[in-house]
Design brief:
- The protein is α+β, with helices and mostly antiparallel strands.
- It has helices spanning 2-34, 45-53, 86-95, and strands at residues 38-41, 59-64, 67-74, 80-85, 106-107.
- It has a domain at 26-107.
- The protein has a 5-stranded mixed β-sheet.
- The longest helix is centred in the first third of the chain and has 33 residues, at 2-34.
Length: 123
Amino acid sequence: MRRALAGLLGALSLAGCAGHQGAEMRSAEQALAAAGFQARPADTPEKLAQLQSLAPRKVLWRPQDGELRYVYADPTSCRCLYVGGEEQYQRLRRHEQVTVDRFFAVEASRNTIDWGLWEILGR
């Protein structure tokens, strides 16, 4: 009986974590969209491979054509790359100031993102 109860509680705990994680991903997507980030679908094998190679659910930045570009990879929920510029990133940070580190951008390595693949050049 105790084992069954422990198993049931464990299963409920895992289900609660999965539900919380799903809600957190939806919340991130909503915050990114509200800040003006554009979702670019991974609709080719090349894009999907690159999306899966990026750090998931972290804002990455790289200079591109003299401007900073920010991306957020979501390889599981929407299977897309959110793309924004400095204005969108600052709006995201202002909107999400309660969770300060949630959308703190980190620099992407030079060869991490093929900007042309995602049609980010000049935008």
